[in-house]
Amino acid sequence: MKKYIYKVSVLALFGSVLFTSCEPEVDYEVNPSAGEELDFSNYVAVGNSLTAGFQDGGLYLEGQLYSYPAILADQFEEVGGGEFVQPLFTAAQRNGSGYLRLAALPTPTSPVTERVTDNLAVRTDVPPLPGGPRLTKFTQPVNNLAVPGMSVLSSYSTQYGAINPYFERLLPDAEVGTKSYLQRVAEADPTFFTLWLGNNDILTYATNGAVADPANPLSDKTPVVSFKTIYSLLVNELTDGGEVEGVIANIPDVTAVPFFNTVTLAAIRQGAGAPDLKVYIKVGPAPSDVRELTADDLVLLSAKANIGRPDQVQTPNGPVVIPHGFNPANPLNDNEVLDKDEVVEVKNHTKLLNDAIAEIAAANNIPVFDVNAFFNSIKGGFKIDEVTYSPAFISGNLFSLDGIHLTPRGYAIIANEFIRVANEYYNASIPTVDVTQYRTVVFPNNN
């Protein structure tokens, strides 16, 4: 119960800064029960940024407190769960890595964001890692082992702790660059686990417009054979040869999130005030590999600020200023767009990885939360308690300002889906939460 008390005290003290809602109410079932099979005394969560509570382009205290594993741990307490330790940032360093907040919203798809840069947990006493500045250490044993940026492929690398600052933070100095994430998972000894890892084995590639860096093997699609081999090792460690229960989540269709579906051709034309505007994209290495953008091509959210930018372009007649994307001589770059052929490529590879996850889960008698099917089922929107949700950027209530990670309410909805799967498969009655007690996107105060 220590974790719960700490949560309340922190949010009460810093509520005006963190924009939190009241402590979520529990939607109790008649007879909460873990069933006959489940033991939540040492629940361990394995995953990446989505499991860490990453949102708004950063990891910070409020997001950690409302990560879906933290929500699950609260519910597991009702059926005998034990203490759940997270690598929380302190109140003084509550803004963690820094994150985006909404400064203004001129139109629903044109937010003005600003980076929070105070009360960070960024270390200045040591050089940064290749993956970014180092963060304040938290090396005591934790139940939430999530590491933003972690993939199945990188989980096998002993060198990854010297690359990723979120993983380095969890390791004693002597283990940095010598211990893999897989080895760290093997030490966790859970009595129940959730595993949601694999997104970055395709997401990193997709969010760079299907452009891989030849010098970085983690920037490409993870080969299916490698993925399957390492994922099997992870599941074997977590299940302890079939003795431990859990729930596995698969990889969502990355094209179903706002990062890929906000900057549409129609939105670009509306923003430019030109209904017939033509937008051009690069689709190959040759100068002539340029064509018009279509509705089947997905411009990345990260490219939005670049569209229409006045660039000086060298032409046979000398340098000319040409708006970025609005002329075939200055098209949107390959890494700013997931074109229609690349969309098919990403979808097909995601399916292959999910097939591997399903096979490994079945072999270990572990149920799968089909996040891929769930995300695709909500594309048209849905309602909970008369509140509408959708993958729409900002207004959809599910996704945070980075267009990829969820809001606290989105994480609460995911937590309830994990609970639904566990209840159905293990014949348990774990209570769900009232998701409306968790916040969505925080709008600027215009008073």
Looking at this protein, list some descriptive labels.
447 residues, alpha/beta, Rossmann fold, 2 domains, 4-stranded parallel beta sheet, two-stranded antiparallel ribbon, 13 helices, 15% strand, disordered N terminus, GDSL, SGNH_hydro_sf, hydrolase activity, acting on ester bonds, hydrolase
Describe the secondary-structure layout:
Layout: H1 2-18, E1 26-27, E2 43-47, H2 49-52, H3 61-65, H4 68-77, E3 99-107, E4 110-116, H5 165-168, H6 181-186, E5 192-196, H7 200-206, H8 224-239, E6 245-249, H9 258-261, H10 265-272, E7 280-282, E8 290-292, E9 298-299, E10 310-315, E11 318-323, E12 337-338, H11 340-363, E13 368-369, H12 371-377, E14 382-384, E15 387-389, H13 408-426, E16 432-433
Parallel strand pairs: 2-5, 5-6, 6-13
Antiparallel strand pairs: 1-16, 3-4, 7-8, 9-12, 10-11, 14-15
